[in-house]
Design brief:
The chain has 251 residues and is of the alpha/beta class. It has helices at 2-14, 71-77, 100-115, 130-141, 176-184, 203-214, 232-236, 239-247; strands at 18-26, 29-37, 47-53, 85-88, 118-128, 148-152, 189-194, 219-224. The protein has one domain (14-247): Rossmann fold (3-Layer(aba) Sandwich). Helix 5 links the parallel strand 6 (148-152) and strand 7.
């Protein structure tokens, strides 16, 4: 037993920390992504994990750009606020967080959970703008993975700027919100959106928030007065939000 414990301790001490380059192959295509590992990783036996989905402006194939906006920027500003393993996949140009890119994001998360000591009961999903839409899309299909989800300035129904995307909820559009609430009613959700968002209309969050509340779901909705599209800096910079996030645990 002593030798086993010493071996685990040695393994932890050798783990690299900071923003690390990783890749995963899905459908015979390799995708680059980043994993953030806290500097004190060796100090704890397990860690929460966050899957972060970037917006349309960070699409690419370099595997790096997606860490510069949103959660990556918040971590660089104050790493102590986010004591977690954070996965940063990247959507290829002209793609969205649906279909294969969504599968890739989930695969990157699962690969990270195998590589690092992640507490499977404390895995969270969040994204901004196009990634907010992706948060709804992935959560709808993999609700069992997440202790909480945080869509920021996202949307559920298609709108003109992103028309043709795979719907979050397949089937009759009249029942979209009811079906969404049925699928996600047991997952803690905090939705953020800027009041005067000129890129993604605020109704993209108001409508699912209202449907989830009507269904008795565990949902909070924060509409940030006077803010345009960038509501993510305020959300990820909120101590109240961080306390709430890490208090959520899947049972």
């Amino acid at each position: 037993m002593l030798l086993l414990l010493l071996g685990i301790a040695a393994s932890l001490q050798q783990t690299q920390t900071g923003f690390l380059d990783r890749s995963i192959t899905v459908g015979n295509r390799a995708y680059h992504y980043q994993v953030y590992v806290p500097a004190d990783y060796a100090s704890k036996p397990t860690w929460p994990a966050i899957l972060f989905l970037h917006g349309a402006g960070e699409r690419g194939s370099d595997g790096l750009l997606q860490t510069n906006v949103g959660l990556g920027a918040a971590i660089r500003q104050n790493a102590s606020r986010y004591p977690a393993i954070v996965v940063f996949p990247q959507v290829p140009p002209d793609s969205q967080w649906v279909g294969t890119p969504a599968d890739m994001a989930v695969a990157a998360l699962q690969q990270t959970m195998r590589e690092f000591h992640v507490d499977a009961s404390r895995v969270y999903l969040t994204g901004l703008s196009m990634g907010g839409h992706g948060t709804w899309y992935i959560a709808y299909r993999h609700a069992e993975l997440f202790a909480a989800i945080v869509p920021i300035c996202g949307w559920v129904r298609d709108f003109p700027m992103f028309r043709g995307s795979v719907p979050v909820v397949p089937g009759d559009s009249a029942s979209v919100m009811t079906t969404l609430a049925q699928h996600l009613g047991k997952v803690p959700i905090w939705i953020f959106h800027g009041e005067v968002d000129q890129v993604v209309n605020v109704n993209g969050s108001r409508e699912p928030a209202a449907a989830l509340k009507a269904a008795g779901a565990n949902v909070q909705y924060t509409e940030l007065l006077g803010l345009n599209h960038n509501s993510w800096d305020a959300a990820y910079g909120s101590d109240e939000f961080v306390r709430w996030l890490f208090a959520q645990q899947r049972r």
